TrEMBL record:
Native source organism of the sequence: Lacisediminihabitans changchengi
Name of the featured protein: UDP-glucose 6-dehydrogenase
Binding of substrate, residues: F149, L150, R151, E152, K206, F251, L252, N253, A254, G255, G259, K325
Enzyme active site: C262 (nucleophile)
GO molecular function: NAD binding; UDP-glucose 6-dehydrogenase activity
Length: 435
């Protein structure tokens, strides 16, 4: 199948490479010439495990190329739109500028029988509007909406073998779903379920899934808040309720909360869209989900300040982690970076480390000090804060670390460390929602 992918950011670059890896003939298009040059050279402009390997292997077969010229989409049967929908400036709503621009740039190059497939996360109702735009162009192309559920750090795996495929198609459209079945034939053959539905349901599935995950995390973090005033242990509580199959243990890790390019922005955009639709009260709880999440960051800051004593100025805080989660260099809405910035704002001498996210953090917050070395980060620290649970941080030897710091206090913002081992090494250990 000949496929084009419009937008080669996180989602599009992974999608283009994965489609080529599955045997399709793919062109990836982006307006950013620097990004296209990097991708064409087999070097993704962001960290994602496994992506450089499939980029290189797919390009070697000649099935994958990248271009800034939208006319190169001609001849493709399927055109995936994978551009970003960031939070609009000064509002919680999604910014549809890039999606609208991508669709308009495609219009002159579409032919009868083509399908345009939206992958971006959009406010419900967008697909119906865009289908009208495509119909009015007279090309004979049709629109389908096929939301993407990939997780950063597992993006290649999630794209090649998704948990499910969702196709939103126009009423009476018989062909779009069968073309998408062909595109995803490998995943479908290995058992991936397919849900074929209308546009609005497909758009909602995506935001509902992210809203549910965010709610699950904030639920356990709310329990952590209660645990903190009752000397209960939220990690044991999560294990115990997680044994109930209806609840499940995944996404019940209490800590500094969720961040990244999706969950925070998607729950805010969903709330904004529901309010536009006159149904704000239906998802009003998502504001509380957001509030609980932000309170957890504050909790980590407060615990650190309390550990430092009455004078914060010139005390050294070692911050372990900057990315919003491990196996990523993404610092968008990162709880870890937020905590570091807040502590710096209070006057602490913050030194932060991360295996992948220092460069992205420095670009946003040059006022912070960074070190690539955990040893240098810990040396002389008056408090240590773990905020991204990279495996290399969980493996730090507490006895070795105690020999480096000035004061052996650690705030484990991800409940990831072996509390008993750290205490045995002389540390004052403080988790979140744990006695
Ligand atoms: C998420 C969705 O999982 C994915 O399906 C969607 O396509 C995009 O948004 P992602 O942003 O990559 O993916 O990260 P995810 O693994 O979901 O984690 C989100 C945040 O929640 C991270 O900051 C993580 O640290 C936090 N988290 C996750 C918790 O605090 N506790 C948990 O138990 C799980």
């Amino acid at each position: 199948m000949k496929i084009s992918v419009i937008g080669c950011g996180y989602l599009g670059a992974v999608h283009a490479a994965a489609m080529a890896e599955l045997g399709h003939d793919v062109v990836g298009i982006d307006v950013d010439a620097a990004k296209i040059a990097q991708l064409a050279d087999g070097r993704p402009p962001f960290f994602e495990p496994g992506l450089p390997e499939i980029l290189t292997s797919a390009m070697a077969t000649g099935r994958l190329r990248f271009s800034t010229d939208i006319a190169e989409v001609r001849g493709s049967r399927v055109h995936f739109v994978a551009v970003g929908t960031p939070q609009r400036d000064g509002s919680n709503a999604a910014d549809m500028t890039y999606v609208d621009a991508a669709i308009h740039s495609l219009l002159p190059h579409l032919s009868e029988g083509d399908i345009v497939v939206g992958k971006s996360t959009v406010p419900v109702g967008s697909a119906a509007r865009l289908a009208d735009v495509i119909a009015a162009s007279g090309s004979g192309a049709v629109l389908a909406w096929n939301p993407e559920f990939l997780r950063e750090g597992f993006a290649v795996l999630d794209t090649m073998t998704p948990d499910r495929l969702v196709y939103g198609v126009a009423a009476g459209d018989e062909t779009a779903a069968s073309i998408l079945d062909e595109v995803y034939a490998t995943a479908i053959a290995s058992g991936t379920p397919v849900v074929v539905t209308d546009y609005a349901t497909a758009e909602l599935v995506k935001v509902a899934a992210n809203a549910f995950l965010a709610t699950k995390i904030s639920f356990i973090n709310a329990m952590a808040e209660i645990a903190e005033v009752t000397a209960a242990d939220v990690t044991q509580l999560a294990d115990a309720i997680g044994f109930d199959n209806r609840i499940g243990r995944r996404f019940l890790n209490a800590g500094v909360g969720f961040g990244g390019g999706c969950l925070p922005k998607d729950i805010r955009a969903f709330t904004a869209r529901a309010e536009e639709l006159g149904r704000g009260e239906s998802v009003a709880f998502l504001k509380e989900v957001d509030n609980i999440n932000l309170r957890r960051r504050q909790r980590v800051v407060d615990l650190t300040v309390a550990a430092l004593g009455p004078v914060v100025n010139e005390k050294k805080v070692a911050v372990l982690g900057l990315a919003f989660k491990p196996h990523s260099d993404d610092v968008r809405d990162s709880p870890a970076l937020d905590v570091a910035v807040q502590l710096r704002g209070l006057g602490a001498d913050v030194v932060a480390t991360d295996p992948q996210a220092i460069e992205n953090s420095r670009a946003r917050h040059p006022q912070l000090s960074y070190s690539a070395s955990v040893e240098e980060t810990l040396r002389g620290a008056d408090a240590v804060v773990l905020v991204t649970e990279w495996p290399e941080f969980a493996e730090i030897d507490p006895v070795w670390a105690a020999g480096l710091v000035r004061t052996s206090v650690i705030i484990d913002g991800r409940n990831k460390l072996d509390a008993a081992a750290w205490r045995a090494a002389g540390w004052t250990y403080q988790g979140l929602g744990r006695p």
